[in-house]
Predict the structure.
Amino acid sequence: MESKESILEKEIKKKVELSTAIRKLKKEKNAVILAHYYQDKGIQEVADCLGDSLYLAKQAAKVDNDIIVFAGVHFMAETAKIINPSKKVLLPDLKAGCSLADSCPPKDFTAFKIKHPNALVVSYINCSAEIKKLSDIVCTSSNAKKIIQSIPKDKEIIFAPDKNLGAYLNKETDRNMILWEGSCIVHEAFSFEKIISLIKSYPNAKFIAHPESESPVLDIAHYIGSTSALLNFVQKDKAKEYIVATEVGILHEMQKRCPEKTFIPAPVEDDTCACSECAYMKLNTLEKLYRCLLKESPEVKMDAKLIEAARIPIERMFELS
Ligand code: 13P
Ligand code: SF4
């Protein structure tokens, strides 16, 4: 029987070969790879641009390559297509969806909007193009506070689809926005009790969390921020240990930027997994990335009218942030 070491060696060799082949192919095809921090380490390493939702949306607007390979989830690749429609946008696995985007069906949201005819709609970028079309302004977790604060205080606002981010923003901006009841399964999976006992085991560690997490978790955090804000925080902060409540993929970049520090993923309720992984993000693999570049498929295709309508609230976001 083959030893564990030799199986591991073969796996590493295959990954190195795939990464080399992807780098070569992307040059030949004049393609650019945009990857979110929640992607697998291997994908993060071959990316031309690695970042959070806001950074990647801004990059997608700028690139002049023929092909954009979006190593992230469907709403992100769709956003890239909306912002830069003349480009061919590829997504390694078209099934890479998002629980948060799925929690806001356009038909139900239209009915919800009708109940609040005077409200301005601010939608988190983690939603479908149809929801963006129904929105006045889009935001990401990096600029949400700034965008909400730019709206007059007496204006009624619907915030969708994330109720946790919405509740956090209501507290931060002292508002009473009407919240759509959507959520992210990854950020809702954290166990409050397990986090408390982890904090007790690491008394010198700081607990940091993404605002998509539930309010009891946010209430005990030393720092709350978007993916890139968390990354900036650990680089500037003086502590040596951090318990991190967001998708575990970000720990790769945190560890790279702060090799002397210790990062501990916040535990989840489920006993089968120690940390919180986004199963949608992880549908993309190096193999699928290579194949999608080679075949230039699967491609994100969209109706031109939908692109036009969904672009308006995204452009408003760019103007405001
Ligand atoms: P940010 O990239 O804005 O931090 O959002 C996190 C997320 O859940 C992406 O799917
Ligand atoms: Fe969607 Fe949550 Fe996964 Fe982000 S982490 S893609 S919000 S399910």
